[in-house]
Design a protein that fits this description.
157 residues, mainly alpha, 7 helices
Length: 157
């Protein structure tokens, strides 16, 4: 559930990356407001006011669960929250590595004559292995950084 919920705020505020230079407290406030809006809509959508069902309001509590999962993720105090956050970070650097690889021109396609692809160094600098709290995922991040370093050294030759 948390893996699904953690990015819902982005559906309203967008994916705010470190390179966007948005202060952490501003980003947190925007995401909190977005989640409150989503939870409210969820509450309205899941409540019923028809007398056929024998209820008058009374949503299923989905909005509270959504907010609880979002706050748990943001606080990163539980094992699940730590793993979901680390997987999110890993996803980001793997995507960056893939984009760099896809756009690198090794003389059989690439992005165009004379172009050497994109360099997404800021994603790797902002996501060093030390940011990963889970030991196994930290090892994977170290390997991604190592492979990227080798790729970049090869491209400079």
């Amino acid at each position: 559930e948390m893996a699904i919920v953690h990015d819902l705020a982005e559906s309203i505020v967008g994916d705010i990356a470190p390179s966007d230079n948005v202060e952490k407290d501003v980003k947190r406030r925007l995401e909190e407001e977005a989640m409150a809006t989503i939870a409210h809509v969820l509450g309205v959508a899941t409540s019923t006011t028809t007398t056929e069902c024998g209820t008058n309001g009374g949503g299923g509590g989905g909005e509270q669960r959504l907010l609880q999962l979002f706050h748990e993720y943001e606080q990163r105090e539980t094992r699940e929250a730590i793993v979901v956050k680390d997987l999110d970070l890993l996803d980001m650097i793997l995507q960056a590595q893939e984009y760099e690889t896809q756009t690198y021109n090794d003389n059989d396609g690439g992005v165009g004559v004379g172009q050497k692809g994109i360099d997404l160094e800021e994603f790797f600098q902002g996501t060093p292995p030390s940011r990963f709290q889970d030991a196994k995922l930290r090892e994977v991040a170290e390997e991604v950084h190592r492979q990227r370093g080798e790729d970049m050294a090869r491209r400079r030759r």
